[in-house]
Amino acid sequence: MTDVIVAGAGPTGLALACELAQAGVGTLVVERLPEPLRQTKGGALQPRTQELFAERGLLEPLRARSVPTEAAGGHFAMLPVPLDCTVWDTAHPHTLAVPQWEVEEVLAERAVALGATVLRDTPVTAVEQDGDGGVTVTAGGRRLTARYLAACDGAHSTVRKLLGVPFPGRAGTFTAVLADVTLSSVSDLVPAGIGHISTLTREAGGHWVMLAPLGGGRYRFTGGTADGGGQDKGRPVTFEEVAHALRVVYGEQTVLAAMESASRFGDATRQVEAYRVGSVFFAGDAAHIHPPFGGQGLNLGVQDAVSLGGKLAAVLRGGAPSDLLDTYHAERHPVGAWTLHITQAQRALAHPNPGPDVVELRRFLTELLRGPEANKQLAGLMSGLSRPYDLA
Fold first, then answer.
1. Of 144, 129, 198, which Cα lies nearest the Cα of 28?
2. Cα(first)–Cα(last) distance of the chain, in Å?
3. How far apart are the C-alpha atoms of 112 and 89, rounded to whole Å?
4. What is the pLDDT of residues 342-356, one digit of tens each?
């Protein structure tokens, strides 16, 4: 028997493994994918997440893998006003652009170095909780036992489904494409560097595209159509689909040479009602999903992991009472709920085909954010700096 089984080797699961292993807690990570998915996906580390990583000696390895960017502020709903975090007491007032697979690689290396075990190609197929407070997980044909199980296995969490845990919320209204692409030629409309997000997004011909340069002719492509693109997220992304969007938005001179790791995503909003179910805890996208606005997802999951890891370590190695674990839900569920609120608001404001009322609301908020007090408040919410953490 081990202390904790972690389902999922994404940023949340691996950050949790680092927290637990650092404290000497026996940790086993099981992951269904045989190899890491080398896709940029989430790539913005917010100031609060950088503080947490710096405290653990992880920020410099991540900084070494970061994509060069301008020192631009964050954003709310892609409005053209940078959110200024320099007014907060932090050594890291700007977001750090690191592709998600690079974050996972750094965390995996640290977790294993600290003593955690990571088993890939090991999908969870059954979860059983016993009356004594333990849990048995069947994964990759093995029966594994532990004191606790942490479900960090993403938006389509197998653990959540096996336990029949409800995932209430709002269904998605649009789908869009995310892909890592290489361009053989570009027009003058293609951004040459990563600045404020409002400079990276263009709309034309019923399409919208955000291109983030990654260097060497590579870009992170995010795009869709003004009508929402339908709801079939399972449709394969085709080369011509992305090539056409690039031509429409950036001109015929912008030519797609290669596409890799393409996928679709939506804007569904859901959250489990309880982050703890017996000996099982939910974190990251297994606990909450929301529209991808403002660079919140990866950061919210990592911060879940820091909270849960500290509490599990205190109980398993520090002699703290077991009811400390109940405070994980009390601490993190409200933060997740608030993140769902602010991402849904951004989704409405950033609609690629806004009605006249939304246009006026965008104008009003743009002027409001030019004021220091409103800017500071939203900068603190979006960066996480307004939420206190015990870094010790």
1. 144
2. 29
3. 33
4. 999 998 998 888 899
DSSP secondary structure string for all residues of 203-250: EETTEEEEEEEEETTEEEEEEEETT---S-TTSPPPHHHHHHHHHHHH
Distance from C-alpha of 200 to C-alpha of 192, rounded to nearest angstrom: 9
User: Rg (Cα) of the chain, in Å, rounded?
Assistant: 21
Q: How far is CA 5 from CA 77, 154, 156, in A?
A: 37, 15, 18
DSSP of 244-294: HHHHHHH-TT-EEEEEEEEEEEE--EEE-S-SEETTEEE-GGGTEE----S
In this structure, which amino acid lies at residue 212?
A
Q: How far is CA 389 from the centre of its chain?
A: 19
Question: How many C-beta atoms lie closer than 10 Å to residue 299's C-beta?
Answer: 25
Q: How far apart are CA 176 and CA 230, in angstroms?
A: 9
Contact 55, 389 (CB under 8 A): no
Query: In the predicted model, is pLDDT for residue 392 greater than 50?
Result: no
Q: Cβ–Cβ contacts within 10 Å for residue 45, how many? A: 26
| DSSP-H helix ranges across 79-194 | 100-113, 158-162
3-state secondary structure of 128: strand
Contact 108, 378 (CB under 8 A): no
CA atoms within 13 A on the CB side of 161: 9
Beta bridge partners of 44: 97
pLDDT one-digit tens code per residue, 293-338? 888 999 999 999 999 999 999 999 989 999 999 999 999 999 999 9
Non-local CB neighbours of 122 within 8 Å, separated by 6+ positions: 30, 31, 32, 139, 140, 142
